[in-house]
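REQUEST ID: PR-0412
SUBMITTED BY: lab tech R.K.
PRIORITY: routine
TASK: structure prediction, single protein chain
INPUT:
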Amino acid sequence: MTKVRPAGRLARGAVLAAAAGACFAALAGALTLAAALAIAQRDQGGRLFNSDHIQAFLLARDLLADPASLFAWYLPPALFAVPDWVIAVILVASPLPQLWLPVVYGGVALAALAFAAGAVMTVCGLSRPAAAIGAAASLLAVLMLAIAQAPAPGGIAALLLNVAFPGIHGGTLLLGLALIAAVLRLLHREPGPRAGAMPAILLCALSAAGAFSDLFFMLWFAGPAVIAAALLAPAGPPEQAVAAHRVIRLVAISSAAGIALQVALFGLPLGYFLGTMRPPGAAFQVQDLIVLALHSSLLALGEQIHVCALPVAASLFDCTAPLHAVDHVAALMRATFAAADWLGIAVLAAAMLSGARAAWLCLRALGGQRLEPSQSAEILFAGAAWASLTAAVTLNIIHDTGALRYLLPFLAMPILALLIPMLRLGQRLARTPVLTGMALLWAMAAMQLAPAALASFRQLATADPLAACLLQAGHRTGLGDYWSAKAVMFQTGYRVHVVQLTVNGRFHRWIFNRAWFTRHAGDGGPLAPDFIIMRGLDAAAIRDRFGAPSRKEECGGAVIWFYDPAMAMPEG
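STATUS: complete
OUTPUT:
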C-alpha cells in the first residue's frame, strides 16, 4: 500500500523546485537589469527613452485611466500587445519612479526569457526546472556582461539587447520560446487521454496571442513549428504522427483566429488609416467600429499589399531585390570580422553551427529515425533563426542598421540553443561544483556591472537635459518630431506636452493618441504651444507653417524656437 507521506514530500519538492526556478529567474532579472543599466549609462539613456520603446508605457497609462482609449491610438500593424502591454501596465500601475520603468522592464523581460528557455529545457527532459532556469539565467548573464564590457555599444551582439525593450519584437521571441515548449510537450507527451490537454490549450493561446500581437510571429515561429511538426510526424511511433497533425491544426487555426481578431478590432493598420481620414480632434464613437468594420478589410488588404505583397512581388519579378537585403546583411558580417568583434563573430558562428546541426537532424528524421525531444528542440530553434533571415531577405526589409531587428531570432535562438549541450554536460558532472561555478559566475558578473549600474541609477534620478530644461523654464506645451515628443512627455511625467510633427510640420499620427492633438496629456487642458523642438525638422517648412519665432535658444542640447504669444493649434 502506497504511503501518503512520500507523495506529500514529492509535492513539496515540486513546489520547492518551482520556487527555486522563480528565484533563479528573479536573480537573472536583477543581474540582467544591472547589465541593462550599465549599457544605458554608456549611451546616456538613448536606448531606454527611445520613442519606439517608451510608447508601451504611454499606452499603458491611458489603458489604466480608460481602457476605451485603446481605440483612440493610431496603432501600427505590429501591436506588440503580448507580453509588452501586459508588463508595461503592471509596471505603470506600480509605485516605481517613472524614469525607472524602461530599465525595470528590461529586467522583467530577461527574467521571463530565462524562465521560458528553462521551460523548454525542462520539457526536453534535460534538467529539473530550477536547474534549467538557472542555466538559462547564467547564459543570459554572460551574454549581457559581454555586451556591457564590449568596446562599443554597437555591433551584432548589441542587437540582442532588443529582447530587453518593449515594442521591438523581444516579446515575440518570448512567445516563440513558450510556443516551442508547448509543441515539444505535445509531440513527445506521455500516453494518456488527458496528457496533452493543457499543452494544447497553451499552444492555442500562444499562437493566437502571437499572431494578434506581431505578424512576424507567423513567419518566425508558427510557420517553422508547422513545418517541423510535419517533418517529425513520420519519425516516430503512430501516436507522434497523430500529435504532429494536431499541432499543425491547432497552430494554423489559432494563428488565423489571432489575425482575425486584430482585423476585427483594428483592421491591422486601421488606427493609422484613421489618422489620415479624420481630423485629430474628432471624437471616436463606438458606432464607428460598425461602420469601419465594413471597409477595414479593404484598408487592411491595401496596407498589406503596399507593405508586404508589393515587396514580395518585386522580389519575384526582380531577382535583384532580395540581393539588396543580402548586401546589407553581408556588409554587417564583414564589418563584424573587420572590427574583430569577437562577440559578434561568436554569435554568427553559433547561428551557422545551429543551422548545420538542425539540417543533419532533419535528414535523420526524413530517414525515419526517431528523435529525442532535445533534438526536436534543436530543429525548432534553428528553424526560427533561419526563418527570420529568409523572411528578411525575401521581403527585402533590411535597408539600414535599424531594420536588423528583424534578424533577432537569427541572433538569439542559436545562443539559447547552447543550453542543450550545456545541460547535457551538466548531467555528467557533480551537482555541487556546477552550482558553485554558477554562483561564482553570477558574483563576478555582478561585481563587474555594479559601478556602471550605480552610475546609471544616479543618472535616472533626473530627466535628460532637454526635458529638464523645458520643465525648469515652465513650458507646458510645444511641438517636436517623433523622436523628441514622446521622450519629453515621458521624462517630464506628462507635465510638458509635445505634439508629434513630421519633418515638414504636419501632424505625425504614428503611434500617438488622437486626443493629444487637442488636449494636454497631463491635465487634459486645451493646447497652446509656445515652443518647437527643431531637432529633426525642416526649418524652412516650419517657418512657412508656423511663422517666425520670437526667439531661438539652445535648450538641453537642442535648438528651440519660442513663440510669444503662444500659437493656436493648426489643423492637420
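NOTES: The chain has a mean pLDDT of 80.
REVIEWED BY: pending
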